[in-house]
Amino acid sequence: MLLTLAIPAISQQPADIQEEQAALQQAAGQSQDRVESLDDETMSMVSAYNRELSRAEELQTYNDNMRQLLASQAAERERFNVELREVEQVRQAIVPLMVEMVEVLDNFISLDQPMLVEERQARINQLQSIVTRADVEIAEKYRRIMESYLIEAEYGQSLEAYEAQIPIGGVERTVDILRVGRVALYYLSLNREEAGIWNPETGRWSTLSDDYLGSLDYALRMAREQAPPNLVNLPLWTR
User: Fold this and answer.
1) In CA terms, which of 22, 153, 174, 217 is 20 to 30 Å from 37?
2) d(CA 211, CA 222)
3) pTM of the full structure
4) What is the largest CA-CA distance in the chain?
C-alpha cells in the first residue's frame, strides 16, 4: 500500500521541477528585463544629468563673463564721467585764457610796426567776435587764436611787398611797402622818387637818402618774385 502510493509521487517530481525551473527562468527573465530597463533609465538619467551639468557650467561661464562686462562698463562709465567733469573744468578755465590771449595779441599789434594794419586788425576783430559767441565750439575758438599767433610769428621770418596808404608829412599817400621780417619796414613812392623807413622811436616814417632808391626798388621786386634773389644795401634803424 505504501509502495503503491509512493510510486505516483516519484513519477510527478520531474514535471514539478521543470515547471518550477520554467517559472524561475521566467522570473529571472523578467528580473533581467527590469534590470535592463532600469539600466537604460539610469543611463538616460546619467546622460541627462551630464548634459544639465555641462549646461550649468556654460551658464556659469556666461554669467562670469557678463559680470566682468558689467564691471568693465561701470568702470568705463565712471572714467567717462570723470573726464566730463575735467572737460568742464578746462572749459571754465580756458575761456578767460582765450580772452586774455586775444587782448595780448591786440596790444602786441598796436605796439608793433605799422605793417598790414588793416589785415591784422580785421583778424583781431574776428577773434574778439567769436570768443563771445555761444554757437562756436571752444576748440574752434582756440584753433583760430593759435592760427593768428602762428601768422604773427611767420611775419618775423618772411619778406613781403604790398601797396598801402601811409601818412607822410601829414598827408595820406599810396606807396609800396617792403617788410623785412620784423627787422625793418620801408616805403617807396610809386614814382620811385622817394623812400623812407619806419622809425620805432618816434613812431613815424623817416625819409631815406636817394642813394637807397635803386636798392629798395630791387628788394621790392625780389619780394614780389619779379627779380632773382641777391644782396641789397639797405639801412637798418638803430638807436
Assistant:
1) 22
2) 18
3) 0.59
4) 181
